[in-house]
């Protein structure tokens, strides 16, 4: 167990537990962190925190199945991210990979998820319980978007064009939801950006079908998490259309097919 | 949602006891249940009778024969339920029946029975969505408040969560249902359909030793199962396959039916638990409720329990009385909507094979 990766995990601060991985904030060189004042300014990148995505062993899964899946997913995710970086899609940079241990180290992104910015967080009944009737209004009324200096429509446009860039590179995200998109905080040097995260289910495909399914998954995520924001998805699509150019036609046709097929499943009983 | 306050349930306590009968026959089970909602909020299950149409090994149930089975048994099962509950049809407040989704012919024959009883005893009809019935019964039995629901049966595979008076579908199968996948494989290896093919798969899987590689197909919160069925079937053509041997766990390179059942269950259930976990993470819920026929599979319950524990939550599951299609769940969901003032007018008392879970207005929840 005393591998450098497990030592790194021990030094890391847990942040959250996602669907399939635990997320930590860590420093690649904890010892340098302490003596950071002695470092040269050009070494600032090693003082930046990184995000560790640790696919821990899932007890419910058969060990053999779990090991194969974990290894394949860490490697697959790293590959997809690198391909995205090469094609100029906004994704977090890669800092380290350890497929056998199930650890992926990524660039730390300061910002909020699109889901949070659209107010999709208050749907849970448990959350409502903790809020008092009086002070709740103030908390929610403060529009988080103001801090970022963008409108909802700007965000939708950015989503559309990022996905288009990714699809032009033949990468299929596989799990497009509003929780898997972060709006980078507008601090220099990079400014406001929409960053796509979680490429755990990503794969490569040139088929219009797969791209259409990718969009359909996002459409469903929109309608299930943000019930009133269905027209917003239309502006995502229009930005996507603009960026995709002539490829849009076949994908759009396919998307209509996929939507129909999706509904058709209601016939089974 | 800005300014959202925790709402009280719109459902008032009844001023007197309400009694409903539920008639269910969307697939090969004919179920009749009688339920009472008391003025103090108690809910009593007065009767829950079921008769299952069982086909010989290697055969599935066809709509026409299933409908005939339901027609033959309807009166016996209803009388049996009335006798158990010790009431007569005059004591009822409403008659609930499955409007859909399901197989057309069996649905029609049960709806006909419901309409006839409604006319004979002048009782109002309430058409119920089968999936909502499963969810409401599961919530009632387990006491789960606002769980993520995994609905797995012979015809449905859905991950559902409640939001704004609607059961929204977060993920579902892109092709066949998980029960269909298991049942069809049971037919391939000639397992008995008694009491249920899925049950026999579960028993065989307990003896399986070897995990064979199968495709693992999750797409976001959806799953695809048809390819896994094909791959598992393909193993029965493998030259290492020994249909009459049992797994012993030695080093011999053979594939037994037990190994295949084991591998199929492990792979398919891992996928289902994964999409449920994904939905839980997405919504931020810690409760999960398993309903539907496949929900009585103990291995699935066990895997779901481990997952929920890892996330600091609980799993809620019911036993075969309430998991497998039954009349009581139709009575429960029907009576809830009846108490909110919903009735199905006689001229609209049809049934439909296509009736999505999210089409129902869930008036009785906040």
Automatic annotation (TrEMBL), chain A:
SUPFAM superfamilies: Protein kinase-like (PK-like)
Domain of life, source organism: Eukaryota
Single GO MF descriptor: protein serine/threonine kinase activity
Annotated keywords: ATP-binding, Kinase, Nucleotide-binding, Transferase, tRNA processing
Any GO BP: tRNA threonylcarbamoyladenosine metabolic process
The EC number(s) this enzyme carries: 2.7.11.1
A UniProt-annotated Pfam family: Kdo
Swiss-Prot/TrEMBL catalytic activity: L-seryl-[protein] + ATP = O-phospho-L-seryl-[protein] + ADP + H(+); L-threonyl-[protein] + ATP = O-phospho-L-threonyl-[protein] + ADP + H(+)
InterPro entries (UniProt xref): Kinase-like_dom_sf, Prot_kinase_dom, Tyr_kinase_AS
Gene Ontology CC terms: cytosol; EKC/KEOPS complex; nucleus
Domain Protein kinase: 9-269
Statement: the UniProt record of this protein carries the keyword Acyltransferase: no
Protein family (similarity comment): Belongs to the protein kinase superfamily. BUD32 family.
Protein name: non-specific serine/threonine protein kinase
Organism, as annotated: Daedalea quercina L-15889
From TrEMBL, chain B:
CC cofactor: a divalent metal cation
Alphabetized InterPro entries for the sequence: ATPase_NBD (IPR043129), Gcp-like_dom (IPR000905), KAE1/TsaD (IPR017861), Kae1_archaea_euk (IPR034680)
Pfam families: TsaD
Alphabetized CDD domains for the sequence: ASKHA_NBD_OSGEP_like_euk
GO cellular component, one term: nucleus
Claim: Transferase is one of the keywords in the record: yes
Reactions performed catalytically: L-threonylcarbamoyladenylate + adenosine(37) in tRNA = N(6)-L-threonylcarbamoyladenosine(37) in tRNA + AMP + H(+)
Residue ranges annotated for the Gcp-like domain, each copy included: 45-331
Enzyme class, first EC level, given as a word: transferase
Assigned EC number: 2.3.1.234
Binding positions (a divalent metal cation): 130, 134, 151, 325
Compartments it resides in: Cytoplasm; Nucleus
PANTHER family assigned: TRNA N6-ADENOSINE THREONYLCARBAMOYLTRANSFERASE (PTHR11735:SF14)
Name the UniProt record assigns to this protein: N(6)-L-threonylcarbamoyladenine synthase
């Amino acid at each position: 167990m005393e591998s450098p990766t497990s030592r790194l995990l021990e030094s890391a601060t847990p942040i959250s537990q996602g669907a399939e991985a635990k997320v930590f904030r860590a420093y690649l060189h904890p010892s340098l962190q302490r003596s950071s004042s002695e470092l040269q300014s050009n070494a600032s990148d090693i003082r930046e925190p990184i995000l560790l995505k640790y696919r821990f062993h899932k007890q419910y899964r058969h060990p053999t199945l779990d090991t194969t899946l974990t290894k394949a997913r860490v490697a697959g995710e790293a590959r997809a991210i690198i391909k995205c970086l090469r094609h100029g899609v906004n994704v977090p940079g890669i800092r380290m990979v350890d497929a056998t241990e199930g650890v992926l180290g990524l660039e730390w992104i300061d910002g909020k998820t699109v889901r949070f910015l659209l107010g999709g967080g208050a749907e849970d009944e448990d959350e409502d319980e903790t809020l008092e009737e009086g002070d709740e209004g103030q908390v929610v009324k403060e529009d988080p978007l103001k801090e970022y200096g963008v409108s909802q429509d700007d965000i939708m446009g950015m989503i559309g064009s990022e996905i288009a860039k990714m699809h032009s590179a033949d990468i299929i995200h596989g799990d497009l939801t509003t929780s898997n998109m972060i709006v980078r905080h507008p601090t220099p040097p990079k400014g406001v950006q929409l960053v796509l995260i979680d490429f755990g289910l990503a794969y490569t495909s040139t088929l219009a079908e797969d791209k259409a399914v990718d969009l359909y998954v996002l459409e469903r995520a929109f309608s299930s998490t943000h019930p009133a924001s269905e027209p917003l998805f239309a502006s995502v699509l229009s930005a996507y259309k603009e960026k995709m150019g002539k490829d849009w036609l076949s994908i759009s046709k396919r998307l209509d097919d996929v939507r129909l097929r999706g509904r058709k499943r209601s016939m089974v009983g | 949602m800005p300014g959202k306050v925790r709402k009280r349930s719109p459902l008032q306590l009844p001023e007197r006891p309400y009694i409903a009968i539920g008639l269910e026959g969307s697939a090969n089970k004919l179920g009749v249940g009688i339920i009472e909602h008391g003025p103090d909020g108690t809910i009593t299950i007065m009767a829950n009778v079921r008769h299952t149409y069982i086909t010989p090994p290697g055969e599935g149930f066809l709509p026409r024969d299933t409908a005939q089975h339901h027609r033959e048994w309807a009166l016996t099962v209803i009388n049996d339920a009335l006798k158990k509950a010790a009431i007569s049809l005059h004591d009822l407040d409403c008659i609930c029946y499955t409007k859909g989704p399901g197989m057309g012919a069996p649905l029609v024959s049960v709806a006909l029975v419901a309409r006839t009883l409604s006319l004979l005893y002048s009782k109002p009809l309430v058409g119920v969505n089968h999936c909502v019935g499963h969810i409401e019964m599961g919530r009632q039995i387990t006491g789960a408040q606002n769980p993520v629901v995994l609905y797995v049966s012979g015809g449905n595979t859905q991950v559902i969560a409640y939001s704004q008076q609607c059961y929204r579908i977060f993920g579902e199968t892109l092709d066949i249902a998980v029960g269909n996948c298991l049942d069809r494989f049971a037919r391939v290896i000639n397992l008995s359909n008694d009491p249920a093919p899925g049950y026999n798969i579960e028993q065989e899987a307990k003896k399986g030793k070897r995990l064979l590689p199968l495709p693992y197909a999750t797409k976001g919160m959806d799953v695809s199962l048809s390819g896994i069925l094909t791959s598992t079937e393909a193993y029965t053509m493998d030259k290492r396959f020994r249909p009459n041997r049992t797994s012993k766990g030695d080093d011999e390179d053979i594939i037994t039916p037990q190994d295949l059942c084991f591998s199929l269950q492990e792979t398919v259930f891992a996928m289902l638990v994964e999409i449920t976990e994904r939905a839980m993470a997405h919504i931020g819920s810690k409760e999960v409720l398993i309903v539907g026929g496949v929900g009585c599979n103990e291995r699935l319950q066990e895997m779901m329990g481990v997952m929920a524990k890892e996330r600091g939550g609980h799993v809620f599951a019911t036993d075969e009385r309430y998991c497998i299609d039954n009349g009581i769940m139709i009575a429960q969901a029907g009576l809830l909507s009846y108490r909110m003032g919903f009735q199905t007018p006689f001229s609209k008392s049809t049934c439909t094979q296509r009736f999505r879970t999210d089409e129902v207005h869930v008036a009785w929840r906040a």
